[in-house]
Amino acid sequence: MHNDTVQHADKVKSHPVFTSFIDGEPSAQTGSAISLVDPGNGNIWAKAYIDSAAIDVAAKSARNAFINPGWRDLTAAQRAGLLRKLGDLIVAHASELGALESLANGKPHAATFAEMRATAQWYHFYASAIETRDSHQRNVSSTVDAFITREALGVVVAITPFNAALSLGSWKLAPALAMGNTIILKPPAEAPGSTIRLAQLALEAGFPKGVVNVVVGDAAVGEKLIAHEDVAMVSFTGSTAAARNIGAQVVGQLKRYVCEAGGKSAHIIFEDADLESAAIAATQGVFSATGQTCVAGSRILIHSSIFQAFLDRYLGLIRKLRLGDPTSPQTHLGPIASRRQLGRIQHLVDEAITQGATVLIGGTSPSMEGDAKNGFWFNPTVLADVTPDMAIWKDEVFGPVAIVHSFDTEEEAIALANNSQYGLAAGFWTRDLHRVRRVSRQLEAGTVWVNTYRAIDMRVPFGGYKQSGIGRENGVEALDEFSQIKSVIIDYAAAKNPFGM
Q1: Is 259 among the residues known to form the active site?
Q2: Cα–Cα distance measured from residue 148 to residue 482, given in angstroms and rounded to the nearest whole number
Q3: Long-range contacts: 352-358, Cβ < 8 Å, 24+?
Q4: Averaged over 73-95, what is the pLDDT?
Q5: What does pTM read for this prediction?
Q6: Number of alpha helices (DSSP H) and beta strands (DSSP E) in the chain
Q7: Burial (CB count <10 Å: 0-12, 13-18, 19+), residue 253
Q8: Is residue 424's pLDDT more than 80?
């Protein structure tokens, strides 16, 4: 697998230039250019053009494609066929796409290669889901029937984050296309490569021009894009602060809005847990993708009777994690995506230490050798003696930092877990089936994992409680988010004159 990854990674053109991709064509190199930096060594590897002039062009292209009979009149089975072709193309180009993702966010190539192959399953799932979806008929009276169906909304804008622009973009793209919408993807300006390549593959799969577009832009471009009159819906994944700002604008215009925002998930280890499995899951739950995931189980709550026994296993696993070159098959953790994010992580850790937190492992950037000296690296970190009033407890770090905290009772564990503005996910470990039901019902989170963690599947809805989002992605439920209900009422009887004439 690794050899295949490296082979395709080498095919990423040296110093590529990324522009918006609209109506099946790359845009001109106009607007302001920004340099894209490889987080592993700090070197500039590509350039991207932010062009606000692309907004109107993309919106008009997507709108025209939506009303074009060549897209609008396709049957569900025909759209399903296109989705399957796109999924197959993603598998065929998984290494190339994964390499582009790694250059943007620092994930190891082996991880992004696997992520791309898994992403293809979303397209196959929604192909099957739309083929089997039916309208509903209701009998209103002896002569009146009503047909309740769902139709596409129109032009959907999908704003995606740097840590998984293609895979999280596909969570939006696959159900949106399945329902017959057209879409404008706006990846971060610093991570446009894989999304642009995805739009090119959609064209190769047979999607009509204008159905899948990409606008390269910053937050200002995003704000203008979502305000465009031709846009019917916005689907956003990113920070809670950005989700609030976008939501105020979108909902104020009476457009559909779905968002998945920040998280600060609790991972509870009860006294009857399988400690070996729990320690493995807790390690993976925080440090996958170098902690740059919204569902990171970064608040680890451990029953006091097993606190030290669990901690010994947990820290032992963390010491075995290998930080290094993303192209190496031996690497577990790559760099942080940007210098700015690295600085934020260090600030939150230093602030917690100043406030009384204890560093059990990590806490600083490592000393790297060779080209990696100028990269953005941070050691896997575990802090103890953190209290709920500290920022490190309350705020999403988006880095390889975990908190360990003890509790004595089930009620205390639930209260600690729910002591957060976020409610994206939670997890807990127990052998008690009665506890499984009690605790899962009381945790304020959109997803609760029991005796596992980060078990995300395209068949299962995903989204947040509280400040972690609105609406749901994944599952057949996502088709409802990207559609609107239409009721068609048919009266088979002769019309009756209500005025008695």
Answers
A1: no
A2: 16
A3: 352/383, 352/386, 352/390, 352/391, 352/392, 353/383, 355/387, 355/390, 356/385, 356/387, 357/383, 357/384, 357/385, 357/386, 357/390, 357/392, 358/383, 358/384, 358/385
A4: 97
A5: 0.94
A6: 17, 23
A7: middle
A8: yes
DSSP string, 298-311: -EEEEEGGGHHHHH
Residue 314 one-letter amino acid: Y
* Residue with more model confidence, 251 or 6: 251
Catalytic residue among 107, 172, 186, 255: 172
Q: Stretch 461-489: mean pLDDT, rounded?
A: 97
The residue whose two tokens read 């972690």 is 468
Average pLDDT over residues 374-390: 97
Which residue among the candidates 85, 101, 186, 294 is catalytic per the annotation?
294
Helix (H) / strand (E) element for 266: namely: strand 266-269
SS3 261: coil
Query: Strand, helix or coil at 157?
Result: strand
Strand order in the sheet with 358-361: 358-361, 381-384, 401-407, 299-303, 266-269, 425-429, 447-450
Predicted local distance difference test score (pLDDT) of residue 1: 28
Q: pLDDT tens for residues 351-370? A: 999 999 999 999 999 999 99
Kindly state the tokens that stand for 342.
């690295």
By percentage, how much of the chain surpasses pLDDT 90?
Answer: 95
Q: Flag whether pLDDT at 15 surpasses 90.
A: no
pLDDT at position 496 is 85
pLDDT digit string, tens, across residues 115-163: 999 999 999 999 999 999 988 999 999 999 999 999 999 999 999 999 9
Cross-strand bridge partners of residue 212: 183
Instruction: Report the pLDDT value the prediction gives residue 14, as an integer from 0 to 100.
Output: 77
Q: What is the mean pLDDT of residues 47-64?
A: 96
326 Cβ neighbours under 8 A, 6+ residues apart = 40, 102, 106, 107, 108, 109, 334, 335
CA distance 376 to 38: 9
CA 474 to CA 174: how far, in whole Å? 9
Instruction: Out of 96, 101, 473, 481, pick the active-site residue.
Output: 473
The Cα 294–Cα 499 span in angstroms is 62
Annotated catalytic residue: which of 96, 115, 260, 481?
260
Q: Is 27 exposed, middle or buried (0-12, 13-18, 19+ CB in 10 A)?
A: buried
- Is 276 an active-site residue? no
Query: How far, in Å, are 247, 339, 365, 384, 485 from residue 361 at the CA level?
Result: 39, 22, 12, 10, 53
Amino acid at 88: D
Pairwise CA distance, residues 114 & 109, whole Å: 9
Phi, psi of 468 (to 5 degrees): -95, 5
Distance CA 469, CA 446 (A): 9
In 3-state terms, what secondary structure has residue 293?
coil
